[in-house]
Amino acid sequence: KESGCAEGILESWQKRTVYNQLPLTLVSQLGKGRKWAWHDATTKTTIRAENEVEAHREANNYKFGFRKWMGNVTERPIEVRSDIDKELYSDLSTVRLQEGSLVTCGNIVYVIFFGWWISLIYFLICPLMFLTIVGAVYGKLCWKMGCYFLWPFGKSIEKAGNVMKMTLAKAPRCGIIHEDRDFDDNKDQSREKDSSPLMASSPFPVEIPVPEPPAQRISRHWCHPGTYVWLLLGYPVLVMVHFLACVISWLLVFTIPVAKLNARTVTTVLLMAPDDLQISKLDKTLSCETRVVLCCNKAMNIHYYKYTVQGINIFALNLFPLVILSLVIGHTDNDHVYFSAETKFATAITSIIPLSYFIGMGIASISAQSNFAVGAVVNATFGSITEMTFYITGLLQGHKASTKCYEEIVKAALTGTLLGCILFIPGICMIIGGIKHREQRFNSRSAGVSSALLFISIGGVFAPTLFSKTFGNLVCESCTSIPGNTSVPFICKDCHYDSSQTDPQLILSHIEPLVYTIAVLLPAAYLIGLIFTLKTHSHIYDIHISDIQGGHAHGDPVVHWPRWRALAVLITATMLMACCADLSIKNIEPMLTHSTISQYFIGVTLLAMVPELPEIVNGIQFALQNNISLSLEVGSCIAVQVCMIQIPLLILFNAFYDVGFVLLFSDIHLWASIFSVILGNYIFMDGKCDYFQGTALVVVYLILMALYFFAPSPRSCPST
To answer: So what's the pLDDT on residue 366?
Structure first.
């Protein structure tokens, strides 16, 4: 510090040592006025995609106002997948090197739930086939298959004399000696003369006879009478047995290998000639891949939760038959003879989950294959169709029954969606992502835009409620006087602000114009937010698409759902959604009249969060991939859409078809929503999160749900 030399040494040491070893946050503080690119790098998002369609889908995920979607819309080539994925989509015809013991928990579970009774059926059919005499060869087959299905692991079914093995041999090491081109021409000529063979072959072509492949012989087992006895007596029974085992194991998801085992047995093994089948044990020292007819070493795999069929997740695919079942029992058993109203409500409300998945996947498929304008129209049209179907159906049912109870349920569902998207979805994503990645960072600038829009949304939605409390009169249901006590002449209970009873003109002259004004301002604010984040300030997200992998090597991407199929799925799922929502609302009446649970709680939980289950799963998957920014945007986008799109649409619907919907919320909805937005914005301020912050959000959400659970029923709803 006392000489210039010391200052130079200190500056040099700072440049070479401090900037190379200290964390980037500290380096940015030591810059003292210098411009560092670290702050800009924190907001930069790099997208890695396999092809252009997937890159477009990933880019759409970061666009404001769109529902975030997890999962590919194109088919991934099997060559670029991991070994785990290759095992998931294997058809059980390839024998690979087995590591570890075959006595696993999953294989033991197979024996307990499937193996013993499938083998028992084979052992019962075996003597029956021997009694027919001509089917004795199939009796032997049943005995072999019974022993095989009792413990199929470590065994393979091969076609005798036709086993193909592909040895994984390594190429020999070869060295290439390059000639030195710096020698003279004379030396090159002498080298050619010295290395030339004494006898050279003539340049005319030589014909080498190639033997013709033997003609394939037609199997004669189809002409044998025992085959027809087998097809009449044994095969139909085994088809039903294997079909039952296949359905059960497929619905359990994690036991899909058992389903593949049974399906391949019915379609291939049992239709082959018995003499051509050979069951043998696998060689543990196998060092090559072998193609066989059937081989299964694992009965269970936990990774089957991500198994897809034509891009459809296995859970959504398995839940789709429940949609058909709910429609059948809902429209056939009108008098509740076979099924109660609670059962119909449960099946109908559960059917919403796969339909929401199909609608979301259809939106993602069309958006990924179209430009931004088409994607925006599809998102705006179908993005809120699930919730809007519930709300409009409930309002129509309440108008038909001449009761305000359904309107209160709709308002509770709106509030429950806000609370779940602001508290529960970000909280559960922070917990799961924080457990795996300890601390996660997100784009605080984009989160700030979403937070500002949430404040605008909450202020606009609850402005009529605050207006009624300011200018309305206090109404008390029951007031009694105490005889002999002149200081306290009346004791009033159940006092509240109810402008509809005190001054009906207040709604017509003041509150309704205010509601229509808000219905115009909120979508306008939403549109301004779109222009801000997508056009004028798109650098907030700073999305960078890295080099596309696999797209050029494997040709054009194969899309699971083309545009026409995605549009057909959207329309069909929307119509089915309307039917299931109608059944849910019709069968919810016994729960509203005879249940001890508050109607508030039913609205904020079942009707609010069940349609959002696919979004919750998407947010959790984003968090597990350390992409907490998209996890938080999942909840923010839904909450903004509820306030700025869905509520204005309900107001517009009520303007054309008066169902008595007034944008006045109870006090519990008002204060719970305001507190949730303030807490959420406080958590998102620093741009980083961990599992503790997520726990705080989830605990506050559970406290609010307990508040709704113990709250008294709305005044317009019957109480027990």
So the answer is: 87
In whole angstroms, give the CA distance from residue 59 to residue 344.
Answer: 40
Long-range contacts of 38-45 (CB under 8 A, 24+ apart): 40/542, 42/441, 42/443, 42/687, 43/443, 43/445, 43/446, 43/540, 43/541, 43/542, 44/542, 44/544, 45/443, 45/541, 45/542, 45/543, 45/544, 45/629
Q: Which two tokens stand for residue 502?
A: 């005190």
Q: What pLDDT shows up at residue 169?
A: 39
Q: Taking the alpha carbons of 545, 547, 553, 555 in that order, is the dihedral positive or negative?
A: positive
pLDDT surpasses 80 at 283 = no
Q: Average model confidence (pLDDT) for the chain?
A: 78
Residue 682, pLDDT score: 84
Separation CA 291–CA 156 (nearest Å): 10
Q: What is the DSSP letter of 526?
A: H
Distance, in Å, from the CA atom of 575 to the CA atom of 578, rounded to the nearest integer, reads: 5
Residue 380: is its pLDDT beyond 90? no
Task: Say what the pLDDT of residue 484 is.
Answer: 59
Tell me how far apart the alpha carbons of residues 705 and 693 are, in angstroms, rounded to a whole number: 19
Instruction: Find all residues with CB under 8 Å of 102, minimum gap 6, and list them.
Output: 153, 154, 297
Contact 286, 97 (CB under 8 A): yes
Region 255-274 average pLDDT: 93
For residue 1, how far is the Cα from the chain centroid?
A: 62
Q: What percent of the chain has pLDDT over 70?
A: 75
Categorize the per-residue pLDDT at 422 as very low, low, confident or very high, splitting at 50, 70 and 90. very high
37 token code pair: 């690119």
The answer to whether the CB of 454 falls within 8 A of the CB of 680 is: yes
**Residue 649: left (phi > 0), alpha (psi -120 to 50), or beta?**
alpha
Pick the most confident of 250-259, 280-289, 503-512, 587-596.
250-259
Residues 119, 151 contacting (CB under 8 angstroms) = no
What residue spans of 642-709 are helical by DSSP H? 647-656, 667-683, 691-709
Helix, strand or coil, per DSSP, at residue 711:
coil
Report the sign of the C-alpha dihedral through residues 9, 10, 16, 17, in that order.
positive
